[in-house]
UniProtKB/TrEMBL annotation:
InterPro entries on file: Adenokinase, PfkB_dom, Ribokinase-like
Entry's localization field: Nucleus
Cofactor: how bound: Binds 3 Mg(2+) ions per subunit.
E.C. designation(s): 2.7.1.20
Protein's pathway: Purine metabolism; AMP biosynthesis via salvage pathway; AMP from adenosine: step 1/1
Gene name linked to the record: ADK
Superkingdom field: Eukaryota
Gene Ontology MF terms in the entry: adenosine kinase activity; ATP binding
Protein name per its UniProtKB record: Adenosine kinase
SUPFAM superfamilies reported in the protein's UniProt record: Ribokinase-like (SSF53613)
Subunit text: Monomer.
Organism: Oryzias latipes
Keyword Transferase recorded: yes
Length: 321
């Protein structure tokens, strides 16, 4: 085991303040929400967030896919604190202040780009029974600027301190130039660069951005639906998840000192890992359905656990499987 130092993990993505509350059916009906769903906020949802805070008892969490994984990696490692650095864009507002506080409580060294044009991104988790209806308003998260934040000397020094990098595919819709700068640094210094496919629409509608970054990817994460979308867009001509993992692993790579590792989850079914000429499967421990609260954030937590092991071993083998 290697000792883990502060700022040895770097993440960059869409920071969202998760606002969680147990609500009633009338609240769901008012905003035409399904009990168990994930949507992007529309104009009709603008008042939802303030009403949620005023009407119900809420809990706040530092959220967003990348930030979630950084949080879990820190939780797994425990000490030292501030193992993970996180960059993203927020607003100069009340929710931004709460997000900074929650990130600090999670022992994340968050350095947000703060601007006044858009409010801090939020995600309302409206809970009824065992269900959660998620409504995300990206807002400021869409406003990250490479030249105004990543390029600053004091911020780039934090990038240089890191040994492992993780970015969720959602950030490909925001600042591919920022991702490329970090990915190229990782490749040139033989550090570990990890990317998540994140969602089928990333593979479909942001394919060009994804494939600009892909040659720098040392570890690729995804689930079965994302893998299927990726395979279709890349003309792999197969729906077999093992073959998809193998073909993704074999795509061109800039840093030949590291073999790419591809890890594809399938919920309760086996996880598939391709590395070199080998494709392996790993069974998932069965859990009684009555013990499952919900599966929200399960993928982010999986990645956070994997990254914590990579940090400790300083090796891209996904040893948590």
């Amino acid at each position: 085991m290697s000792s883990v130092s502060p700022n040895s993990l770097f993440g960059m993505g869409n920071p969202l303040l998760d606002i969680c509350a147990v609500v009633d059916k009338d609240f769901l009906d008012k905003y035409t929400l399904k009990p168990n769903d994930q949507i992007l906020a529309e104009d009709k949802h603008k008042a939802l967030f303030e009403e949620l805070v005023k009407k119900f008892k809420v809990e706040y969490h530092a959220g967003g896919a990348t930030q979630n994984s950084i949080k879990v990696a820190q939780w797994m490692i425990q000490k030292p604190h501030n193992v993970g650095t996180f960059f993203g864009c927020i607003g100069k507002d009340k929710f931004g202040d709460i997000l900074k506080q929650k990130a600090e409580e999670a022992h994340i060294d968050a350095h947000y780009y703060e601007q006044e044009e858009e409010p801090t991104g939020t995600c309302a988790a409206c809970i009824t029974g065992d269900n959660r209806s998620l409504v995300a308003n990206l807002a400021a998260a869409n406003c990250y600027k490479k030249e105004k934040h990543l390029d600053l000397e004091e911020n780039w020094e934090l990038v240089e301190k890191a040994k492992v990098f993780y970015i969720a595919g959602f950030f490909l819709t925001v600042s591919v130039e920022s991702i490329l700068k970090v990915a190229k640094h990782a490749s040139e210094t033989n550090k570990l660069f990890c990317l998540n496919l994140s969602a089928p629409f990333i593979c479909q509608f942001f394919k060009d951005n994804l494939m600009k970054v892909f040659p720098y990817v040392d570890v690729l994460f995804g689930n079965e639906t994302e893998a299927a979308a990726f395979a279709k867009e890349q003309d792999f001509e197969t729906k077999d998840i093992k073959e998809i993992a193998k073909k993704a692993q074999a795509l061109p790579k800039v840093n030949t000192k590291r073999q790419r590792v591809v890890v594809l989850t399938q919920g309760k079914d086996v996880t598939v890992m391709a590395q070199g000429d080998k494709v392996e499967t790993f069974p998932v421990v069965k859990i009684d359905p009555k013990d499952i609260v919900d599966t929200n954030g399960a993928g982010d937590a999986f990645v956070g656990g994997e990254i914590s092991i990579c940090l400790r071993l300083m090796h891209p083998l996904c040893c948590l499987l």
